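Bug #77: duplicate submission created two jobs. Keeping one. Sequence:
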Amino acid sequence: MTQLTSVDATFLNAETGNVHAHIAGLGVLDPASCPGGRLTVEMVAGLVRDRAHLAAPLRRRLVPVPFGLDFPYWEDDPDFAPEKHIVEVGLPAPGDDRQLADAVAMLHEQPLDRSRPLWEIALIQGLQGGRVAVYIKVHHAAIDGVMAAETLAALLDLSPEPRELPPDDAAPVRAPSTASMVGTGLLRAAAHPVRSALSVARTAPYLDEIPGLAAVPGVGLVSSMVQGALGRPGTPRLPRVAAPATPFNRPVGRRRSVACGELPLADVKEIRRGLGGSVNDVVMALCATALRQWLDKRGDLPDGPLVAGVPVSLRRPGHGGAGGNQVSILSAPLATHVPDPADRYAAVRRDMDLVKRRFTASAGGWVREMSGLLPAPVAGAVTRFALQAASAASLRPVNLVVSNVPGPQFPLYLCGARVLGYYPISVVTDVSGGLNITVFSYDGKVNVGIVACRDLVPDPSEIIDHLDDALDELRALSRQALGKG
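Kept job's structure:
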C-alpha cells in the first residue's frame, strides 16, 4: 500500500487550466546502433514493459479516496499497457533544433490523463543528421528529481547491448478497500488539528527560509527569537530580499516555449578552479549574467538582485525512491544588478554559501510541514484559491526557478541508441515565475533546458545565447586568475 504524501498531493492540487505539474526530459539520440538503425514505438513500449518493475511510477495509477477525505493512493494498473502512453511525431524538413523545441513545447502544454499511470513518451523522428528525440514526462506527484533519475536509469544501459534484469517477482500493489480508505481518512481528519499545530511549531524557527517571507519586516527577528528560545543560537540570518518585478513575473498562460543548449563541462570546472567555489556556484553565476543581459536588453533590469528558487533533495543516501516527494526549495539572491563580472561572481558565491548554511541548519523541512497544514478534503480548493489570489495580488516569492542536477559522465543507451544529450524540461507557475532553467551534466557537457510561458518569454533561446556569452566572460576571468591570460 502506497499513499501520496501531502507534498505529492500539493502537486496535484496546484494544477489549473494554465499550469500542469509534470516534469519532463528531452533525450537526443543516435539510433545507428539500434537493431535496423531505427528507434520505434514498439521497441520503446517493449522496453518499458520489461523494466516497469524497476521503476514503480511507470505502472502505478491514482486511486482517489471517496469524498476526498484523504490523499489518494497508488496501485499497480491491472490494465497496464505501455503502448497507450507512447506517441510518434515526425518533424518536417529540415528537422532542425528550433522545430524540435517547438514540438516539445506543444507536448509540454498538454496535461496527463489521471485515469492511468501518470507518464507519456513522444518519439520524435526526422531530426537532422539522422538523430531521433525522446520526450518523456511524468507527473511531479509521482516522482521528484532523484526518483526521475532512478526511473531513467531503469530504462537506460551502459552499452548498446541490454543488461540482464532481475526477475519481476513482486506481488502487484493494490489500494486499500473503500471502507478502509474512508476509515483511515476519518481518523486522519480527527487528528489533523494536532498535526497542524505541531507543523506550525516546527516551522516557526525557519519562517525566514520560506520564499517570500524573508522580505517581510519582522520575520527574521521572529525566527531568531524562536531559535534562541529553543537554544539554537548562531544560525545564519538570511538577507531581506524581495523578488522585483520582471517581464516573466506575470500570470502565466497556457502555451509554453522551450529552448535547449549545452556548455562544455570542462570549461565550467576550469572556471571553478580559477575563481573558486563550486560547479553550482558557476552555474548560478552564468544564469545571473545571462538574465542580466536579457533584462537589460529590454530595459527591464531591476536595481536589486533577482530571487531564484533552487530545488534541493532531502533524500538520505541509500533511501532511493521510497517515500514520495522528498524535496524542498531554498530562495537565493541572484546578483543580476552587479555590473562587474568579478564582483557578480563573488556576490553569487557569498549568497549561495549563506543560504546553503542556513538551509543545512533547518534541514529544509518547511515544505513538508506547510503542505500538511490543510486537511485533505479542503486542501485542493484552498491551494488553488491561494495560488490564484497570489497571482492576482502580484505576490512574487521568487522570480524564477534555477536547478542544477549532476548526471553521469559516461554515455548511456536506450534500446541500443546512444544518448547524445539529455535536457530537463520543468514547470512554470504564477508563483514560481514564468521561467525555469534546469541544468543537467552528462557525458562531459552541461545540458541546459529552459521552459517558459510563451506569452512572457516567446524565445528563450536568447537566454541560451547569453549563457554562451557568460561562459566566455567567466572563462576569461578564470584564466587571468590562473595566469593563463
